[in-house]
Write a structure and sequence with these properties.
Structural class: alpha/beta
Strand order of the largest sheet: 2-1-3-4-5
Largest sheet: 5 strands, parallel
Number of helices: 36
Helix content: 40-55%
Distance between the termini: 72 Å
Radius of gyration: 28 Å
């Protein structure tokens, strides 16, 4: 008689739950052809070694895991079992709601079947009925492997920490420096997209040459859900045999002895040093390992045709090199290349980063141009925020912000010239303007050739010495002397002639949103950003004066998130005069054309028109054409449409469907809806306090609300009556709320002028019907919030 060896992993707390699982496994152990061993049987002296658990899991025919409490050790073991292609049988107490919020946020295990129970008898009966040890199959080989794309480049995969700390900033900077064209960095950033599928993480790990997982201390907000996700991913990487480094703050608590897998640091420098040493060890020799990885990637093909559909990544930063194959040019892209100086405003996922990446590549392709891309980290900007808080007069603050930005722009441009000249095979002619600039940089390397943050700190130190000046005129004079006298004036005099040799000079600024997280000083950040916008024209004119108008045209393009610009515009004296262009891809390019372009780029032969939809998607969802349904459900942004389509394909492949069916799309809709919800929460956190609770109050309500009903929901979410208007305005900017402007039509827009037009139309409609003004909630949020759905036509405020 063949005996099934079974391993059981579960949390020791709460004790009643552990006792239930312990009792169930004890009964299963009485079955004649079954031998059950639990993690408790392996414990020696209260400590449990990782290799002991791994040996038990790999030796077992089946591993049972109770995931109810999302215990990080159990999730690591579960991930290891999945990654090492073992059969798993997950359990979850259906009556335990203590971690329900974390389960809803996690999303990672939504497509993994779980045996629901409330007592040990139910577990025992379910085991007898299913006999997963005899009839089960590994989740990895049956479901996850068919979804793997073998054409991806090897990469460094980093599961970022939940909140950007000094250590996290150093980790990101080091990884970006270590990554390259043949070994890109892929980041799972919770601030960008915290909802990813198990298939997505498996794909990233499969392509990775090294995996870094950043856990956070339990004292930090959202730590439990983040650590649950991170622990599962770490275990998956370990099971798949990938080099793995787990990082955590010193006060992170874990009962499992990860030994050299987990490094707990007390300072940011310790964290950086450990990571640098680990990367050098694991990625050496890089060329040989990359060659092997490429061969394996080329050999592995998807087992089904649907699995071979690869739409790429929806986060542009994660596939910068692939963008050139399918990027759709827009007016914004063409304006940046034409040399216009503007502020480009758009919500998360509207294509700002993709435009920046492609514009930068096009600028650098012409060697006559100079491209300067500035992406300050959120941490860098905090120094400026602290400085502005020391100045009382509004004019002084504006002058400080403008002066600092001019200082930073000037130094960034100088370093960009130096980097560009270093790529010239013939070098630089002696005694010319460029030679003079290089000599100046070399002579002033102590304050000039340091990173953005260090130059910022030097500037802040200089300015802090001026804050005791009482008169506004005195403050301005001392600020000017601190920042623009002496070496900086000399830098301007040598930089301008060097720039004059270029055909055009492009300065592109992105990534300002990294500083706008929870708890940020929104007022000071707004003043700081307004200072950047205000300094754009005068900065160009300052350089032009040095060359007496004979210099190269200089353009500054600033990319900014919609909610940030709304805060900036609220403190501007004349917001209508700000040089703004709102990014709306759907005005120029049908959103589904972006999906078609990506599909075409992944095929060996040119596909026929509509091939993706006719061949791989069902024709309709709930009686509505599938393509129309996708556009109805999604917010009108490339990232959202790509996310939903990729999630639907993942669902179909997991269910072994030959094409995406209606139930796959419906399941993907709920997954996408959580994605949209969390993106809205991140984007709106600077304008609405405790925005998560406010948005969650809409759960279960009707998708159409009269003003009085909307106010009741906001009141339940803790919003005071005096703040209703501001919160409603913010929710409209997020496209969460729209106004009924005609029978069955709801207008969603973040444009101030279009919102005014919607207000007028909504009032007239309400007056005609003798009702209150009515609001509609965008269908993107219906599934996650389980709303009573409405039948509306969406207007995008065109």
């Amino acid at each position: 008689m063949t005996v099934s060896r079974i391993f059981a992993g579960f949390s020791a707390a709460p004790a009643p739950l552990a006792d239930t699982v312990r009792s169930a496994t004890a009964r299963i152990d009485t079955i004649p052809d079954v031998n059950v061993g639990t993690w408790e049987d392996l414990s020696i002296g209260g400590r449990l070694l990782l290799d002991t658990i791994e040996q038990a899991i790999t030796a077992a025919d089946l591993s049972i895991f109770d995931l109810t409490q999302l215990n990080e050790n159990v999730l690591f073991e579960f991930g290891f079992a999945v990654g090492s292609n073992r059969i798993v049988w997950p359990l979850r107490d259906s009556s335990d709601t203590s971690r329900e919020t974390d389960w809803n946020t996690l999303g990672l295990l939504d497509t993994v079947g779980q045996v629901r129970f409330t007592n040990s008898e139910q577990i025992y009966i379910a085991f007898q009925n299913e006999r997963p040890d005899l009839q089960g199959a590994p989740l990895f080989s049956t479901t996850l492997v068919p979804q793997l794309s073998g054409g991806r480049l090897p990469a460094i995969f980093y599961v970022a920490e939940l909140h950007q700390t000094d250590a996290g900033r150093r980790v990101t900077t080091l990884l970006e420096k270590r990554a390259g064209a043949d070994l890109p960095l892929v980041v799972a950033d919770p601030q960008e997209a915290s909802v990813q599928t198990l298939a997505w993480f498996t794909q990233q790990i499969y392509s990775a040459e090294a995996v870094i997982v950043h856990l956070v201390s339990t004292r930090r907000q959202g730590a439990r859900a983040h650590n649950a996700r991170a622990s599962t991913v770490a275990g998956l990487a370990r099971g798949m045999g990938k080099p793995l480094l787990m990082l955590a703050e010193q006060d992170y608590e874990s009962a499992l002895d990860y030994r050299d897998l987990l490094f707990q640091y007390s300072t940011a420098e310790e964290c950086q040093t450990r990571l640098k040493y680990w990367l050098e060890r694991e990625l050496h020799p890089t060329e040989a390992r990359l060659a092997i990885a490429k061969e394996e990637a080329h050999a592995l093909r998807l087992s089904t045709e649907l699995g071979s559909v690869d739409l790429g990544e929806y986060v542009a930063e994660n596939e910068a090199r692939a963008l050139e194959r399918y990027y759709v040019e827009t007016t914004t892209y063409r304006e940046v290349l034409s040399g216009d100086s503007r502020v480009y405003v758009g919500s998360k996922g509207v294509g700002k980063s993709a435009t920046v990446l492609r514009a930068e590549a096009a600028i650098r392709a012409d060697k006559r141009n100079l491209g300067c891309l500035i992406k300050p980290a959120g941490y860098d900007l905090n120094g400026l925020v602290r400085l502005l808080s020391d100045y009382e007069e509004r004019d002084a603050k504006g002058y400080v912000a403008e002066s600092l930005w001019k200082y930073l722009l000037l130094t960034e441009l100088a370093l960009s010239v130096e980097q560009d000249l270093a790529t010239r095979p013939a070098g630089v002619m002696p005694d010319g303007p460029e030679w003079a600039l290089l000599r100046f940089i070399a002579d002033n390397a102590d304050w000039l050739k340091v990173d953005f943050a260090s130059r910022l700190e030097l500037a802040v130190d200089r300015l802090l010495e001026t804050r005791d000046a009482t008169k506004l005129s005195d403050q301005r004079q001392r600020i000017a002397e601190a920042l623009h006298a002496g070496p900086l004036r000399q830098l301007r005099s040598v930089l301008a002639p060097a720039l004059a040799l270029r055909r055009r000079v492009f300065v592109v600024i992105d990534n300002l949103d990294k500083a706008w997280d929870r708890g940020a000083d929104v007022v000071q950040l707004s003043r700081l950003t307004l200072g950047l916008i205000s300094s754009m024209d005068s900065f160009r004119h300052d350089l032009e004066r040095v060359t007496e108008g004979s210099g190269a045209p200089i353009s500054l393009s600033l990319f900014m998130r919609s909610d940030i610009f709304a805060s900036v515009a609220s403190i501007a004296r004349e917001p209508d005069k700000l040089p703004v262009r709102r990014i709306r891809w759907h005005e120029e390019v049908p959103l589904l054309e972006i999906v078609d372009r990506r599909y075409a780029a992944s095929r060996d032969a040119e596909p026929t028109s509509g091939e993706l939809w006719d061949r791989y998607f069902c024709p309709a969802v709930g009686g509505r054409n599938t393509r129309e349904w996708i556009l109805h459900v999604c917010l009108p942004r490339p990232r959202d449409v790509l996310y939903l389509c990729k999630a639907a394909i993942d669902q179909a492949v997991a269910r072994h469907h030959a094409r995406v069916e209606q139930d796959d799309l419906v399941a993907a809709e709920r997954q996408y809806s959580l994605f949209a919800f969390e993106a809205a929460a991140v984007e709106g956190q600077s304008r609405i306090a405790d925005i998560d609770n406010v948005l969650l109050e809409f759960a279960g309500v009707t998708a159409d609300l009269e003003m009085s009903q909307l106010q009741e929901v906001l009141r339940a979410g803790g919003i005071d009556a005096g703040d209703f208007d501001g919160v409603i305005d913010a929710l409209r900017d997020l496209s969460f709320l729209g106004l009924h402007t005609a029978d069955g039509t709801v207008m969603f827009t973040d444009s101030p002028r279009e919102k005014q037009r919607a207000d007028v139309l909504a009032r007239r409609l309400a007056k005609k019907a003798d009702t209150e003004v009515r609001y509609g909630i965008h269908p993107a949020f219906w599934a996650y919030l389980e709303m009573e759905r409405g039948a509306v036509t969406l207007s995008l405020g065109l």
